[in-house]
Amino acid sequence: MFDDLQDFYEWFAQRNMENSYEIKKVSLDEMPGWGSDPRTGDISHESGKFFSIRGLRVSTDHRETARWEQPIIVQPEIGILGMIVKVVNGRTYCLMQAKMEPGNVNLLQLSPTVQATRSNYTGVHQGNKVPYLEYFVAPRSGRVVVDALQSEQGSWFLNKRNRNIIVEVHDDVPVGDDFCWLSLDQIAELMRVPNLINMDSRTVLSGISFVAPEWGEWAETGLDHGCGLGEPLHSKEQLLSWFTEVKSQYSLERELVPLSEITPWRNSPGRIEHVESRHFSVVGVHVTATNREVSEWSQPMLEPVERGVVGFLGRNINGLFHILVHARTEAGTYDIVEMAPTVSCIPGSYTRSSRERWPRYFDELLRAGENGTLVDVVHSEEGGRFYHAENRYLVVDAGEGFGLDVPEDYCWMTVEQLMEFVRYGNHVNVAARCLLSCLVDRTTRKQLVEI
Predict the structure, then answer these.
(1) Closest C-alpha to 214, from 414, 442, 418
(2) Cα-based angle 447, 449, 451 (whole degrees, multiple of 5)
(3) Where's the dTDP-4-dehydro-6-deoxy-alpha-D-glucopyranose 2,3-dehydratase domain (predicted)?
(4) pLDDT in tens, 50-78
(5) Cα(345)–Cα(349) distance, rounded to whole angstroms?
(6) What's the CATH code of the domain at 247?
(7) Under a CB-based contact definition with an 8 Å cutoff, are residues 131 and 179 in contact?
(8) With pLDDT > 70 as the criterion, what percentage of the chain qualifies?
(9) What is the pLDDT of residues 252-304, one digit of tens each?
(10) pLDDT, tens digit, for every residue of 377-428?
(11) Residue 416 lies inside a defined structural domain of this protein
């Protein structure tokens, strides 16, 4: 445990120096262990495990485009994203890992205690065992306090879910070279540092208020509707009814099709890309690393065309800060819609579209951000599957002049209400969960109270 963050930064720099990594982009046909099906063009591993890249045909009545085709990651395995926590002298500490992922812009970031696909922790790669796995598979030590299946990026994964699990321990836990204990206050401060807390940590941390009172002290900061400042605009029952109504109202149909036949995508030398350079490309990488379960491997990855924008518009309602939640449909969404940020997009994918076809509230988010910014930080997305994928995460106060009347697939709710839905799994999408984890530091909560 570190007395201050300067000690942490010195430790983190030391982990960078003591391990070596090399990531090299390669042609998709130069990845040992991977190959393309001669009939369909689908990309898969020779073991039949890990994941595959396939083609997907989508039709929906709930997006700017009603029909499209795209490459998508198919990974039916349920992985483990696990965090060991411990309470010492009234403070909650998390066991974090300095972990390299080939897609991270800065390679090394802080991950949960365990971040592993089923293929990895069952030894398909024939590499080293995953440290601390025994805390997250039965029979286990410790007390399970959060355990939910949560979705991954629906734009790039088909029906992908991971088990987000938090286990509280009381006994001493041996700390490996690449692991450290950090308090929740320290993590909250590090959350404001670009590209340091990885996506898997952020999604697990979005549920930690159910473990650690100091992370979710809404009453202490005036965010809890029980503290006398007012009532939420909608009750929990009304929010559940709204969400069920939206699920019932919209449609989402998907069909897996040969990767080689999807349009408007093309096979360029060594990669697959959109003919108008939109959205993302499928690329290959070769990796060497000294502190992973295997020291060398190749794999395909998705590379977005540019940095995305993910943000909540918010405003004060009845004395409480509310955020505008979107019931969003994506190509790979497990159950038609999930609760998502107000805006989620890669702006470069819309530059050739008329302004009417841009995501709703995009302009309002950026305008409000000029004066009412509560959160503004760049974070990486899942570095194990996405190459240099970053999003600018925003939470902004649009002011009480922003109207309460919103389209039927949007709804106002408090931060606390959205956090409550995280508990159940497959309600709140990964972008919204990551934003919730950015909202927990004391500085931001103080700003929310003063709005």
Answers:
(1) 442
(2) 70
(3) 6-207, 237-439
(4) 999 999 999 999 998 899 999 999 999 89
(5) 8
(6) 3.90.79.40
(7) yes
(8) 91
(9) 999 999 999 999 999 988 999 999 999 999 999 999 988 777 889 999 999 99
(10) 999 999 999 999 999 999 999 999 999 999 999 999 999 999 999 988 889 9
(11) yes
383 touches 101 (CB < 8 A): yes
Parallel, antiparallel or unpaired: strands 271-274 and 265-268: antiparallel
**What does the chain come to in residues?**
451
| Cα gap 363→327, rounded to integer Å | 19
Residues ≥6 apart with Cβ < 8 Å to 51 = 44, 45, 73, 74, 75, 77, 117, 385
d(CA 2, CA 8): 6
Looking at the structure of the chain, the number of domains it has is 1
Return the closest-CA partner of residue 262 out of 1, 93, 69: 69
> Is the confidence at residue 217, as pLDDT, over 90?
no
Residue type, 238: Q
Is 228 contained in some domain?
yes
Q: Is residue 390 part of a domain?
A: yes
Average pLDDT of the residues of the chain: 90
Helix%, strand%, coil% for the chain, nearest 5: 25, 35, 40
| Confidence at residue 219, expressed as pLDDT on a 0 to 100 scale | 36
Cα separation, 276 vs 431, whole angstroms: 26
- Pairwise CA distance, residues 286 & 289, whole Å: 10
Is pLDDT of 119 > 90?
A: no
Residue 130 in domain: no
Report the DSSP beta bridge partners of residue 71: 55
E-assigned strands of 261-372?
265-268, 271-274, 280-289, 296-304, 308-317, 320-328, 338-340, 343-345
DSSP calls for 136-203:
TSSS-SSEEEEEEEEE--TTTBSS-EEEEEEEE--S-----TTEEEEEHHHHHHHTTSTTTB-HHHHH
Q: How many CB atoms lie within 10 A of CB 67?
A: 10
Domain that holds residue 226: 219-252+306-450
